[in-house]
Amino acid sequence: MPDQFDVVVLGGGPGGYAAALYGAAAGLRIALVEEQRVGGTCLHHGCIPAKELLQTAEVLRTVQTAKEFGVNAGEPTLDVRTSQARKHQVIDRLTKGLETLLKGREVTVISGTGAIADAAARRILVSEGTEVAGNALVLATGSAARSLPGLDFDGSLILSSDHVLELEEVPRRVAIIGAGAVGCEFASMLADFGTEVTLLEALPRILPGVDAEVSVALARAFRRRNISAHAGVRVTSIEGTRELAVTFEGPEGTATVAVDQVVVCVGRAPRTQGLGLEESGVGLERNGFVQVNDHMQTTVPGVYAVGDVVDTPALAHVAFAEAIVAVKTILGEEVQPIQYDKVPWGIYCHPEVAFSGLTEEQARERGYDVVTAVQRFVGDGRALILGEPDGIVKIVAERDGPILGVHMVGPWATELIAEGYLAVNWEASAAEIAPLIHAHPTLSEVFGEATLALTGRPLH
Q: At residue 290, what are phi and psi to the nearest 5 degrees?
């Protein structure tokens, strides 16, 4: 007989370990099956290592401009191996902390590759021959980097995001295919490291999911940093064995760029193959994601799915929220379904991008009587003090109604978005926020000024 638990969690990434920790805090007996160390893509191959290397880029950029502040630090040099060592120290420290948390809450962590033996019985067979079963099963097996037809990752010439995060030498010339969040972060980081970057995006603009004005502002900033960004283009060929010739065609015709490596950043695919899902009756969508309802329940009673295996924003904090929804449903508690178009997004390129809620285009498509306000960081004292005046804060609102979306590009946007997120989710109006005081001089004043502008009485 397999060991019996209240909940068995398959996968130890953000969705999986959040389900385990939250369930254990509620008094449930939890088993967590993970084939590697806990932490998943975010901790080991995504959020944390990427932001660590982006922080290296920021430090390098800061030292390079130090003389503008009267600090003569000389010409800095980059030691990528030292940065990589620091990155691994951060990852290891966070992983050990997570392992300690799981142990402290008496979560049984089982090392091995799990697959469904019987979905109806919520029974999991682990690679080493162990079987576990639960009153409920949470699928959280995460995702893997997606490639393009004919572009298999080799780790040498054709790189995935995983490969970029392990680079120990700075490439001289790189083409990045895909200008979404990851592509733009890598373009920014490598440009700071001294790489000649060509950024290629099939859709009409870079960061296609963000508000158009934010996308335009970022593209302008990238041009000033000599990042060659091309939107609305299609890669037609990649030829060569040592030096690669990447040919693409778009609105301006056909062009070829010579690079040393190609980085493919076209999203991630759910890790749902080989888990026995279809054989067990767990419904899958055509793109391989697990079918769920707004309580994260799959087509099989007692089986749930969270995180990158479901077709929702591939963000660690979204996986956390989905895990809480799943566990509360298991407990029979009242659940507030996630409003996915209101979750906060942070993109850590330079300048940073962050947003929550509807873009202006989306709001108009939904029939709102839209009003907007745009405030620029160039007029903000703190931004000028920092030497980072690029960027805007844009608020999208319903006329005489609530704020529908907040969109930012500029210094520390990923931190500033918290106020915008609260405004959107509490359905606050500009008139309700405008009287609130923002400390001076701060970057947050730009948000306050934008709300004042929406009331028709801007201060500056």
A: -80, 135
User: What does the pLDDT look like over 397-453, one tens digit per residue?
Assistant: 999 999 999 999 999 999 999 999 999 999 999 999 999 999 999 999 999 999 999
pLDDT, residue 2, reads 78
> What was the pLDDT predicted at 166?
95
Indicate the burial class of 428 (C-beta count within 10 angstroms; 0-12, 13-18, 19 or more): middle
Question: pLDDT under 70 in the chain at which residues?
Answer: 1
Tens digits of residue pLDDT in 116-158: 998 888 999 998 778 999 999 999 999 999 998 888 899 999 9
Is 440 a catalytic site residue?
yes
DSSP code of 113?
-
Beta bridge partners of 281: none
Alpha carbon separation from 383 to 185, 412, 445, 448, 449 (Å, rounded): 21, 10, 10, 15, 14
How many CB atoms neighbour CB 243 within 10 A?
Answer: 11
H helices within 11-125, ranges in order?
14-25, 40-45, 47-64, 80-104
377 and 411 Cβ atoms separated by less than 8 Å: yes
Residue 9 shares a structural domain with residue 136: yes
Rounded to whole angstroms, the Cα distance separating 271 from 278 reads: 13
Question: pTM higher than 0.90, yes or no?
Answer: yes
Question: Which amino acid type is present at position 362?
Answer: Q
Q: What is the domain extent for residue 356? A: 351-454
**344 in a domain, yes or no?**
no
Q: Which of helix, strand or coil describes residue 50? A: helix
CA 164, CA 1: separation in Å to the nearest integer? Answer: 45
Q: Can you give the pLDDT at residue 54? A: 97
CATH of the domain at 390: 3.30.390.30
CA distance linking residue 356 with residue 413, whole number of Å:
11
Shortest CA distance to 265 belongs to which of 328, 207, 324? 207
Q: Assign residue 48 the CATH number of its domain.
A: 3.50.50.60
Same domain, 440 and 380: yes
Q: What is the DSSP string of 345-361?
A: EEE-SSSEEEEEE--HH
Q: Which of 163, 317, 440, 460 is catalytic?
A: 440
CA–CA distance, 137 with 123 (Å, rounded to integer): 8
Residue 1's pLDDT is 67
